[in-house]
Amino acid sequence: MIIINKMSKLFEKRIVFENVDFSLKEGASYAIVGKSGVGKTTFLNILGGLENPTSGKVLIDDVEVNEKNLPNLRRVKFGFIFQNFGLIDNETVRENLLIGLANQNLSQHEKDVAIKKVLKELDLGNLELNQKIYTLSGGEQQRVALARIILKKAKIIFADEPTGSLDSENSNLILRHLLTDFGRDATILIATHSPEVWQKCDYVIKIKNQKSELIKNSNRRINEV
């Protein structure tokens, strides 16, 4: 469970959001929504330990997200997907995916088997493991990024506009894999401006006028975002 306890964020004297105070269920999906510049990415980054709150705290299974605990949280629980994919462009598909297996006691053969299996499940079975990342299309790169998260077996996935630079076909593919096929056992948090994304999530976290509201998703409430 993720507990957000009286979390506030200020940039200089500007309040981004204040006194956020609610809990997020394990295994549910959450879309963080709001107008451009409202603080969606900042909210996501604080939960994932990429930024610090001005006040308040975030707890993951009763462990505070802070400088002391972050290395272990990132190694064991966290997975990140970014709009720019977060891959190492001049490395191969294999080298990027081996990062997701870094903490698993597997032989090189077992790692290659796991990599080929997940690539096939993500409709990337035709990729050569020695291909450089920069030779792949945007949709292929985002699926490789998702494959790395799946291999890591991340318990909490933080995704910042994961479909923002993709066409409709690739966006739908990423969302299906993320929210349905592979994300069923993970807690998923997605910062997004896209109705096509937030309509597929279990809950919406709406940021407006420096406040945040946790909404159980439904077609009626979605229209209010």
From TrEMBL:
The record's PROSITE patterns line, in alphabetical order, gives: ABC_TRANSPORTER_1, ABC_TRANSPORTER_2
Q: Domain of life here?
A: Bacteria
InterPro entries xrefs: AAA+_ATPase, ABC_transporter-like_ATP-bd, ABC_transporter-like_CS, P-loop_NTPase
Q: Does the keyword Nucleotide-binding apply?
A: yes
Q: Name one Pfam family in it.
A: ABC_tran
GO MF terms, alphabetically ordered = ATP binding; ATP hydrolysis activity
UniProt entry keywords in alphabetical sequence: ATP-binding, Nucleotide-binding
In its keyword annotation, does this UniProt entry include Lipoprotein?
no
Residue stretches making up the ABC transporter domain: 2-225
For this entry, the protein name equals: ABC transporter ATP-binding protein
